[in-house]
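Q: What residues go here?
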């Protein structure tokens, strides 16, 4: 099983939300040098899609109108999850080891 696969489980969302700000802080400070370009592009395109009134399925339809927006948001969360997993692996491997007593 690949730990970096773009799949998201509901139980992973709290950890994802806790780790995301740290990943972006480390990117801005230059410590983490693997920027998630695909995820950031997906976030911008997803946000434009969610804000744009012209959807594939109009939001005026009772249930179907929300489904396409939910799918776009779910795809973004799956991509972000992949990048946060990569970041946490990097963080764990780059952490200084504790001195032996």
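A:
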């Amino acid at each position: 099983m690949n730990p970096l696969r773009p799949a998201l489980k509901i139980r992973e969302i709290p950890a994802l939300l806790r780790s995301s700000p740290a990943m972006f802080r480390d990117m801005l400070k230059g410590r983490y040098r693997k920027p998630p370009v695909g995820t950031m592009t997906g976030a911008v395109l997803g946000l434009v899609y969610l804000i744009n009134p012209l959807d594939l399925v109009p939001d005026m339809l009772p249930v179907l109108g929300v489904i396409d927006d939910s799918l776009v948001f779910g795809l973004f969360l799956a991509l972000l999850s992949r990048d946060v997993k990569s970041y946490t692996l990097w963080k764990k491997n780059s952490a200084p080891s504790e001195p032996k007593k």
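A: Context that may help when evaluating the design: Residues 38-88 form one domain. Residues 64-94 form the longest helix (31 residues).
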